[in-house]
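Lab notebook, design round three. We kept the backbone fixed and only want residue identities now. Task for the bench partner: fill in a sequence for the structure below.
Input structure tokens:
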């Protein structure tokens, strides 16, 4: 099984692009701190596709902490001169924004969707906003 879960910070703002077929894609670098070595981090090249790419670009920017779930791929390349190489890329299947540096997600969601606090709670947390509607 090829699965990776990481928590780190975005090194710079993500940039959303579209393929010729119109599919959204964003590449980004995730800095992941080492557990037992302070002030040291590993940097991972990541790519997200489709709605995941769109949402990540919309909500997160440089310095934001995110948790990603994905799989590792090794990409090989060769240039015209004959030089070749490989790089590790994490294909992101899903992510969770841990913080929104400089943004209040609640306000962002409400402005985007013209919604109330109750609608936000229902949509984001996945349960009914009215406590009488909670099934337990």
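Proposed sequence:
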């Amino acid at each position: 099984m090829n699965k990776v879960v990481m928590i780190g910070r975005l090194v710079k703002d993500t940039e959303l692009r579209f393929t010729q077929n119109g599919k959204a894609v964003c590449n980004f670098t995730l800095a992941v701190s080492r557990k037992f070595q302070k002030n040291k981090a590993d940097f991972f090249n990541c790519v997200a596709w489709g709605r995941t790419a769109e949402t990540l670009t919309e909500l997160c920017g440089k310095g934001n902490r995110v948790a990603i779930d994905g799989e590792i791929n090794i990409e090989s390349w060769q240039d015209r001169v004959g030089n070749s190489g490989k790089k590790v890329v994490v294909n992101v299947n899903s992510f969770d924004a841990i913080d929104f540096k400089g943004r209040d997600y609640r306000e962002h969601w409400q402005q985007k969707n013209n919604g109330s606090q109750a609608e936000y709670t229902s949509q984001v947390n996945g349960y009914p906003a009215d406590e009488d509607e909670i099934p337990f």
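Keep this in mind before ordering anything: The domain at 4-101 is CATH 2.40.50.140 (OB fold (Dihydrolipoamide Acetyltransferase, E2P)).
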